[in-house]
Amino acid sequence: MTPAMTLSQLGNIAERIRTEWVTKNACRDRLVNLSREAIRYAALAIRASHRDEWEEATRLLAEARQLCAALRQEAAPYPDLLYAGYTQDALKEFAEASLTLAIARGEALPDPESLGVDYAPYLNGLAEAAGELRRRALDHLRTGHSQESERLLVAMDEIYDVLVTMDFPDAITGNLRKNADTVRGVLERTRAELTISYREAELMRAIEALAVQLRSAQGE
What we know:
Number of domains: 2
CATH architecture of the largest domain: Up-down Bundle
Helix content: over 70%
Largest sheet: none
């Protein structure tokens, strides 16, 4: 084989690679935009849920679901792009929003398959949902100690119990151990605040009962 033929073949190979990479790069650009939009809609759905705007939250979550479905379809020819950080972040945020809304409303949890996400973004989304549940629990505490705050604390506790059993390398779990540690801190702070709220509620009830007794003793 002559050097000229070899160089000719190399040029053809390079052109095929260039053509493929142009196509792949365009796909990457579309995935970045889809991921950004999916994250935005998921965040808006969570924000609506904190205001108890359930119809709006459901609508926004449906938008995020469609974007994630489009993302998976777009990335199908390029598995490495599907598992890139920005695509997995979008799927994680969608999982977080879906799980947050389900727990907040006391509904059955969607599983990874029904959401169309892999296990790592699902569990990391679950971990981040605990932070949203803390916010909701504290919102209820502003009006006094409530059973709803207790229910949300129990949900956070159950989430943590699940996460700490997933003792696998970060390459498999997507750094789940770090998120589990964060959940532990969130859980401990929330439990402490609910305990203080409970004690304050108990003290107020005792004071009110004593006041009633005093008025009764005084003949009021």
